[in-house]
Amino acid sequence: RVFASGYHGNDDPDGGFYYSYDRGATWNGPYQLGDLNDRGPLEGMMLSPRTDYIVRGQGECLLFLSAKASEEGNERIGMIKTEDGGLSFQFVAWVTPEPKEARAIMSQTIPLASGQILSTYRKIYRDDRKATIEAFVSDDRGLTWRHLSTIKTMQRSSNPPATVQLEDGRVVCVYGDRQVKEIRGRYSTDDGRTWGEEFVVRDDFAALDDDPDLGYTRLVQRDDGRLVAMYYWATAEHPQQHIAASIWMP
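RESULT FIELD:
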């Protein structure tokens, strides 16, 4: 688990991580992200990562985090990496461009069978005009990035995406849609360049105050091919928000 400062209770501007060898039963840490805040592009910046990483080998791991220059500034997403198993870290590249009108936060990044790296993230415009889920791609192991597609456009508070490449090669992205109070998703057959029609994962939301506080999905594909989406939710039977899951065959 990667952490730093953010509105979910953490307050550690230098950032760090914990790790577990037993699927979360016990944890080791916290460990620092080195001196990334003291040098290079991240010098003096506030880090606010969502846990988002790709293990590339015995000692190599790519980590993706959002950072901003000031409390009032907009975040952008960057990639750092370790090549010695977490003993040291270095900045590699910015994933998203200079943030002028919107925040780029809460990424979900996956390696594709093609060798590319696909990063999907939550984009929130400062003037509240809209919010989107965007896809960026790298063709050179994360050294450079380019915009690939817009997966979802929303008129009110957005949700972070959960993205997986399926065994059959398709890419699926699942997210909470607070406008309609549903968990929804889309499939792509061309590595995220275009996306099919939306499908509904769940639609029985009912909270105590009717506030559409839901989503923040995570997604995995099981060995039997079924997808498991995890998110927080509320229903008429259980009107207080809680962690729930949906399972289906794609």
